[in-house]
Amino acid sequence: THSLQIPAWTPHDTIRSWQSVASSADGAKLVACDDGGFIYTSTDSGMTWTPRASEGNWSSVASSADGVRLAACAYNGHLYTSTDSGETWVPRTGDYKPWHSVASSSDGTKLVACAGIYPLADMIYTSADAGVTWTPQPGAGTRMWVCVASSADGVKLVACVGFIGSGYIYTSTDSGVTWTPRESIRNWRSVASSADG
Known about the structure:
This protein is 0% helix and 49% strand. The chain is an all-beta fold. The strands form 2 sheets. Strands 1, 2, 3, 4, 5, 6, 7, 8, 9 and 10 form a 10-stranded antiparallel beta sheet that branches. The chain has a 4-stranded antiparallel beta sheet with strand order 11-12-13-14, with no helix packed on it. It is globular, with a radius of gyration of 16 Å. The N and C termini lie far apart (38 Å).
């Protein structure tokens, strides 16, 4: 017989409505968000956390490989970026949207985000200038998007449609201009990507 060795997990901070967490490549710098609370950052691999930004309905965070450029989105709010590891945040979108997810290239210059809530659908948006401007991608369609992920160079993207078995996983190999449906209709909730996509 073999004994299963389960690595120890250590709880940090306190019980909150955590929605998303992202990490620098070395795992030292972390960013996390609390729905109805704050964005939190850590520079010691999660041992201690510092509240950042203001209270909001935060739904997702993303990080560059060095942990300096961060992105965050708020449900029924805006997309935000930070260029100082989360100390300050700048709202980047004018319209309030039901943002669900944001992802970043390794250098933090290419971002992808999605919005949508049942029964109101929305789109996937991309940015090639570190979040200063955003472009809707009609090739993805108007759907109830719930999650996006990006390759390290921001060229290969993956996204999924959720809510009551309503859609597919979609992939893009041209930074979000065109999209191909994959797998089958399920109640998808999350996607992830390798560095090369």
